[in-house]
Each structure stands twice: as C-alpha cells, then as structure tokens.
Amino acid sequence: MTKPVAREPQRRNARSNRARILATARRELGRNPDITLEELARASGVVRRTLFGHFPGRAALLEALAEEAAESLRGATAAAVQPSEPAERALAHFVLSIWPVGDRYRMLLALARHDLGAERVGEILRPARDEATAILERGQRDGVFHTHLPPAVLSAGIEAMTIALLEEVNTGALEDDGTRVAVATLIAAGVPEKQACAVVDTAAATIAAQTTPEG
Fold first, then answer.
1. How confident is the model at residue 79 (pLDDT cuts 50, 70, 90)?
2. Is the pLDDT of residue 116 over 90?
3. Whether residue 65 sits in one domain with residue 52
4. Please, which residues have CB within 8 angstroms of residue 134's CB and are 6 or more apart in sequence?
5. Distance CA 68, CA 74 (A)
6. CATH number at residue 161
7. Which of 23, 91, 119, 157 has the most CB atoms less than 10 A away?
8. CA-to-CA distance for 73 and 88, rounded, in angstroms?
9. How many Å is the maximal CA-CA distance in the chain?
10. What is the average pLDDT across 145-151?
11. CA dihedral 53, 58, 62, 63 (to 10 degrees)
C-alpha cells in the first residue's frame, strides 16, 4: 500500500510564503502604493506564480492586509479597555495600545478610500471608534474632558487627527512611539498639557511593566 505523501512541510512552506508576501507588502506599499504584484513578488523572494497562488489580484492582497489590520486592531482595542481607571488614563492607555497597530498598517491609509472603500474602512475602525467614544463619554461625565462637542463627534475629530499624524509618519515628518500622539489626544480632549504628559508617562510605564518578562 502506498503511503500518503506528507503535506505538512508543503503547508508550512505555503504559510511561510504567504506571511513573507504580506510582510513585504506592508513595507513596499508604504514606499510605493502603485507597486505591481510582479514587483512585489520579486521583493518577496517568490516567483510570480506563488504570489498569485495566494493572492489572485491586488484586491485580494489588500483585503488580506485589511483583515490582518482589523484583527490586530480588535486585539489591541480589547487589551486597552481599562474600565476601572480614570478616564484620562484609560484614554492614554488606549492610544498607546492601538498606535503600534496604526503604525504597522499605516500604508493602508494611502490605499484605504480608493482600494478598500469607506465602508470597509469603517468596519476595520469600528471597535476602536466605539471604545474611544465610550472613554470620552465617561470622561465628560466625570468632568475631566471638555463637553464642547458630543462624545462621538469628539471621537471622530481625534480619529482624524490620529490618521493625519500617521500620514506624517508616512512622509517622514514625524517619529513617535505613541507617547506624543497620546499627549496630543488628551490635550484635544481638554486635559491641560502638563497633566496630559504626566498621565501618559504613567500609562506608558504601566504598559511597559505589563509587557516586560519577569526574571
């Protein structure tokens, strides 16, 4: 009886190729949004047939990146929920937690509206939008954020500012690990600058302590 051919090495190789193509796409699309799939295959170190086997077209590749971004943002948003913390610290923790995701997938900003469509972009951002609005609403209720704008409107304004700052990272005009953006976000919400800096420092130290391995 003929033994079945072991396919696990092939599956592992396929997964490795797919991950390498996506990682290369994140990097190269940030440099050149109009890169062709053939050029992307060469940059990924795979033949054209391999890339098209995973992603039959540009739309399929961008959707895979969008789903990666959506999953990462959902995870970061869930991890950022701090219902027992004061609202200003919760907002700082939220921004610091999601900024690395935005930074990693910022190349999608140049492609989002045209290639993905506003509805798909909205789906990706919805969990973060909902959490930011909830934090802002709590902060307004507690008197730590200004009430000049409704929470959802203020959240939309802060989101637009964050996207604009990510675009500045794209152009090389800004480098940030999230702390400067978090301070700017708190200031936009109505927290005085000195207090905003102190809150962000505390939140950053807490996150660092949580992510540093013991031992």
1. confident
2. no
3. no
4. 151
5. 10
6. 1.10.357.10
7. 91
8. 21
9. 77
10. 97
11. -70
Residues 70 and 158 in one domain: yes
Verify that 64 and 154 share a domain, yes or no: yes
CATH for 12:
1.10.10
More confident residue, 106 or 160: 160
Tens-place pLDDT, residues 158-181: 999 998 998 898 888 999 999 999
Q: Same domain for 103 and 17?
A: no
pTM of the model: 0.83
| Whole-number average pLDDT of the chain | 88
- Spatial distance between the Cα atoms of 182 and 204, rounded to a whole number of angstroms: 10
Which domain-ending residue is among 34, 56, 78? 56
Q: How many domains does the chain have?
A: 2
Asked if residue 40 lies in contact with residue 51, where contact means CB atoms within 8 angstroms, the answer is yes
Chain-centre distance of CA 77, in angstroms? 10
Residues 48 and 80 in one domain: no
Report pLDDT for 15. Answer: 85
d(CA 120, CA 117): 6
Residues 45 and 89 in one domain: no
Would you place residue 111 in the very low, low, confident or very high pLDDT band (cuts 50, 70, 90)?
Answer: confident
Separation CA 118–CA 40 (nearest Å): 25
Give the chain's end-to-end CA distance (angstroms, integer).
53
**Radius of gyration for the alpha carbons in the chain, expressed in angstroms and rounded:** 20
- Structural domain harbouring 48: 1-56
Q: Are residues 142 and 170 in the same domain?
A: yes
